[in-house]
Amino acid sequence: MTSPDAPSDVSVRAARADDAAGVAAVSLASWRGPYAGLLPTGALDGVTVDDLAEQWRTTLASLPSSRHLVVVALEGADVVGHALVEPASDPDTGVDTSELVDLVVHPDRQRRGHGSRLLAAVVDIARSTGVVELTTWVVDGDAPRTSFLDSAGFADDGAERTLDTGPGTASLAQKRFATTL
Fold this sequence. Notes:
alpha+beta; Aminopeptidase; 7-stranded mixed sheet; 28% helix
């Protein structure tokens, strides 16, 4: 018997322009939830799903290359997560390396396998475009994300950076994780 909390109709697919509002809602819920303390005070004041959806609609309508991709996780027809990948821009990575820029699951829909499905789809698509390594940056001390990446075969590759997140917050130390596809 299926648990009442277990989604019965889940999938992952390439994002389309008409997914923009769902992707924006997931992003905003995440920024206002688990990542709220990482953003400058007031950074989200007045930001609406509609504001973000318009930006996502433009992005999704014209990705610059086959190595730029956005995939969405769905429960039924509802967008509950997304992943964004682009060619890696770090100077010490090769031309066949892509970066997982973002992988987000709505805070109310976590722990249901959506993150794993998103990552599996990203790996499959990236591999099909000739990518041989995938990197991502993780806030130092983000144990849940580190554990997730470790379980998926990523490892800290020794690269570090510090992001200035603006007034009202501390700078963010990040570590890069990588995996060979």
